[in-house]
Amino acid sequence: MCGIVGFTGTAQAAPILLDGLRRLEYRGYDSAGVAVADAGRIEMVKASGSVANLAGKTSDGAALSGTCGIAHTRWATHGAPTDTNAHPHLSEHGLFAVVHNGIIENFAALRAELEAGGIAFRSETDTEVVAHLLEKYYDGDFKRAVMRTAARLEGSYVLGVLCAREPGRLFCVKEAGPLILGLGVGENYFASDVTALVARTKNVVYMDDGELAELTPERVTVYDRTGREIAKDVSHVVWNVEAAEKGGYEHFMLKEIMEQPRAVKSTIEPRIRGGEIDLGETGLTAGELGDIDKIIITGCGSAYHAAVVGKYVIESLCRIPVEAELASELRYRDAIIDGRTLLIAVSQSGETADTIAAMRECMARGAKCLAIVNVVGSTIARLAGGVLYTRAGPEIAVATTKGYTTQLAALYLFAVWCAEKLGRLDEARYSELVSGLRALPSLAQRAIDLNLHVRYLAERWHGQENLFFIGRNMDYAAAMEGSLKLKEISYIHSEAYAAGELKHGTIALIDEKRLVVALCCQERLFDKMVSNIQEVKARGAKVLGLAIEGDRRIFAEADDVLYSPGCEQLFAALPEIIPLQLFAYYVARENGCAIDKPRNLAKSVTVE
Ligand code: G6P
User: Fold this and answer.
1) Tens of pLDDT, residues 124-156
2) How buried is residue 450: exposed, middle or buried, by Cβ count under 10 Å (0-12/13-18/19+)?
3) Which structural domain, as residue segments, surrounds residue 37?
4) 180 shares a domain with 63
């Protein structure tokens, strides 16, 4: 979704704002814009396309003087990605500039009202109403104008506001959607997330819904909805700048694939002490776990795929019924939920609108909620009763890789910990599973090392128009994720099918042009998969098999082979996805796709 940045200090604002935008560009890249206040007026430059276009138009920001400003990178919702629709938006007489992330649901009514009052709109965006309302309500009191404007808005929004007549002062408002404040020395910032700021400050304040903040170079003041000043905690970010940069890799996605051994290790290792898993941070006691009679795991996109894997593993170890459900479905379902239900909300960003809404719905019905989240201080982390942080570090590529595998690692940890607390494991099995968890970082590395030939396979298979991923049980869950990776970055149509379902319709699409990726990493289901492979081969399809390292049976069945290292069967989905991530990456690269920023996609979907 859109990314916003604000800066006020003594340095020239525009180069700092552009640097922040570059770091936020993964959030949206349809268009970008910057506005600075200088000598009583607002100077603004906007450009469709990437932040590089905006940098070109402004000599990297040097062309704009002024030490206070706001900037935006857009992911279009209302109106095409043109220069005019790009943010910031100016009020009628240029007194206010505003940047916005989210959707203003009552914008049509507000626009009609403002147009009836004689205001001519320049853009097709919902945001422009905000700029006009600010000017309408401004009587010399900046804060009051912002509060009166915010009170008129319905929907989800984060706003950054600049006023020509208020030198050095900025306001930002949060009503659903991510917003943090960055505290510097003689300068202050706001931004959609910490990646925009880590190069300049590590001291941040996480804003909550209904709050607004006033920034000057010397001071940051946070107010509640009624305008009363409130105290906020300052957090210290542990990420460094390098973690948010490419470090010599051609793409963030490849860098993040390669970081998985370390990310999985950071997620698992600190939680195992003396051979015991300690998840005290979840806030769940053995007694509370014993009271749970159902678990629902929810999320969107890859986080949902992690939920599906989690279902298999938790049910198998804990013997508690588990449902995995898409958050966008769960939020509108009349689900059977009560105080004995545990909801596990899975999200890399912690800001996904549907996941937040599903949590609110389930929590209102009494469910306990545990969040598995990567971004510290995010909305989901703060909403949940307990949090198990994945420690993937910043993930920049839109297609998640280390975000997903660390979600699996966290779900596995939870499953083993919970099973042990419930007395479902004998000592020997428990220590076997703990060893299995500890082995995962090196198995992730082995999965990378075993599949370096995948780039040559991608050369062979990149011309496919349609392909299928098939698997059973956890391999089916991994097939869903492998298929999503391929389609989102290479734009090749692909579908994941439970292998046993093929003959109920989909096999009609199999012919000699088709490539079928067959996941065969579950020993007990290997023979079943061989039958499915033979079914598609009989229709002329080519097969790319994914099997456990050393399993020679696959050579008799598949045209080409990817490998996953042998491991505890319950944890197989983690190393197994890595060759499929690499396959998707190299196919997209062969096809010349914009790998880190695929068309139409956003890293963090903060609107419904
Ligand atoms: C977007 C991203 C996906 C991600 C999904 C859920 O669609 O492109 O990679 O899996 O949102 O995001 P979350 O931050 O909640 O994990």
Assistant:
1) 888 999 999 999 999 999 999 999 999 999 988
2) middle
3) 3-243
4) yes
Do 475 and 540 lie in one domain? The reply is yes
Strand 180-183 versus strand 203-206 pairing type: antiparallel
Between the alpha carbon of residue 458 and those of residues 296, 353, 588, the distances in Å are 37, 35, 9
Tokens of 143: 């804060």
Please choose from 603, 606, 607, 608 the residue to mutate so as to test ligand 1's pocket, defined by most ligand atoms within 8 A of CB.
Answer: 603
Upstream peptide bond of 217 is cis (omega within 30 degrees of 0): no
Reported in sequence order, the residue ranges of 202-286 that DSSP labels E, i.e. its strands, are 203-206, 211-215, 220-223, 229-230, 235-236, 272-273, 276-277
CA dihedral sign of residues 8, 13, 19, 25: positive
Which residue owns the Cα nearest ligand 1 atom 8? 603
427 and 497 both lie in a single domain: no
Q: How confident is the model at residue 28 (pLDDT cuts 50, 70, 90)?
A: low
pLDDT band at 299 (very low <50, low <70, confident <90, very high): very high
DSSP state of 120: P
Residue keyed to tokens 């938790």: 314
User: Based on the domain organization, do 486 and 462 belong to the same domain?
Assistant: yes
Ligand 1 center from residue 11 Cα (angstroms) = 36
Burial class (CB in 10 A: 0-12, 13-18, 19+), 57: middle
Residue 510 C-alpha to ligand 1 middle, in angstroms?
30
Structural domains counted in the chain: 3
**Can you tell me which atom of ligand 1 is nearest the CA of 304?**
10
Residue 345: give its domain's CATH number. Answer: 3.40.50.10490
